[in-house]
Amino acid sequence: MAALREAAARWAPGLWRRAARAAAGLGGRRFGSGGAQGPPTFGFLLDIDGVLVRGHSIIPAAREAFRRLVSPQGQLRVPVVFVTNAGNMLQHSRARELSALLGFQVEPDQVILAHSPMKLFSQHHERRLLVSGQGPLVENARALGFKHVVTVDELRAAFPVLDMVDLERRPKTTPLPRNDFPAIEGVLLLGEPVRWETSLQLIMDVLLSDGNPGTSLASAPYPHLPVLASNVDLLWMAEAKMPRFGHGTFLLCLEAIYRKVTGRELRYEGLTGKPSILTYRYAEDLLRRQAARRGWAAPIRNLYAVGDNPMSDVYGANLFHRYLQRGREGAEEGKPRPLAAQSCVSILVCTGVYRPPGPGSPGPAQGGEEPPFHGHRDFGLSPGLMEASHVVSDVHEAVRLVFQKEGWALE
Questions:
Q1: In terms of Cα–Cα distance, which of 393, 405, 344 is closest to 64?
Q2: 246 near 233, Cβ under 8 Å?
């Protein structure tokens, strides 16, 4: 875990972009296969929404997949972690929900929410932060190690004249100015809020006032206060027929407003969730710990990341695979290997955001235009990273494929 903390300090958003450019030529990879069935040397990183569930309903193929993954004694046959970009719930609540849906005991430390790796950003844990999102915000923030958080609702209550969009919520009288509200020292974005206009306004107030939203400054400070964000997904798949806006859409709005108002770019101190390499390193560490608890002595060499979103799931797995390959090259040159894993194979399913082109699908855009880029600006456009190693119909087919590749029995 200490090594992960060091990685969190090193992996600033600018490095994401350089890593993506370096990995843009990804292709033609080879993945080793396991031998006879024995202690597992591979593990799964499973997305949740669009792979295992749609909204609150399980996808039938997920039940079939776990009939193969779970032994008759109710134990996983190989290590599995659930890596989701959602975050508006508690980790143990998500584990309990998955247990009920999948029919076996999912432990909380098998679930990685978008903000879980923020535990590694200990240099900010003592700061007084404005936290945005919904659900059990304060509980989640404290579970991550942040000791002093202020919600948007608490800030609005302290400074009611800041929230002026909803006529019904505007104060009828002008309250006295406050000078007893401690300065805010950063912004923590854990997920999309309910009232976007209020959160956007108050976050901007904090950034433009250097953490003192009851005052005004002659010019906006830059660099601005630290901003930590989780989940950059533009879209996600629920029960609706078309994808819904994700937290990445909220971040896009915030970035555009900040740039329009100040003429500068909003900068992030840290971005977590897929496709960040830090999230995959965090997941690999949990897989290794899970294998150790089960007494599986063989190192987990091959990771299989199953997801439904090319921009987050496939891009992230391919970027991490490239990172692992560069680590192997460094080891051959006498440098220490950072991780035991040697590969991360991306597997795309067709039960969520991604839909394979059908007979009635429109052809290429006129003039050879590229399709719109749905990824976050700090990751850059690298089309090769969005090409999955395998495209399958659903998670059951994905598990069958992996077992065959690893030489494992399918039952």
A1: 393
A2: yes
Can you list the alpha helix ranges (DSSP code H) found in 11-78?
A: 13-22, 60-69
d(CA 222, CA 205): 14
Residue-wise pLDDT for 72-107, tens only, equals 999 999 999 999 999 999 999 999 999 999 999 999
Task: Give the percent of the chain with pLDDT over 70.
Answer: 85
CA pair distance 30, 328, nearest whole angstrom: 14
User: Of the candidates 271, 186, 270, which has an alpha carbon nearest to the alpha carbon of residue 221?
Assistant: 186
* Backbone φ/ψ region at 302: left (φ over 0), alpha (ψ -120 to 50), beta: beta
Strand partners, 271: 229
Q: Per residue in 347-364, is it b (16+ CB within 10 Å) or e — as a string?
A: bbbebbbbeeeeeeeeee
Of the pLDDT bands very low, low, confident and very high (cuts 50, 70, 90), residue 340 is confident
Alpha-carbon span 397 to 61, nearest angstrom: 8
Burial of 329 by CB count in 10 Å (0-12 exposed, 13-18 middle, 19+ buried)?
exposed
Output the CA–CA distances (angstroms, integers) from residue 18 to 11, 30, 116, in the order listed.
11, 24, 24
Distance CA 101, CA 95 (A): 10
Give me the pLDDT at residue 27, please. Answer: 41
- Structure-token match 């975050």, residue found: 87
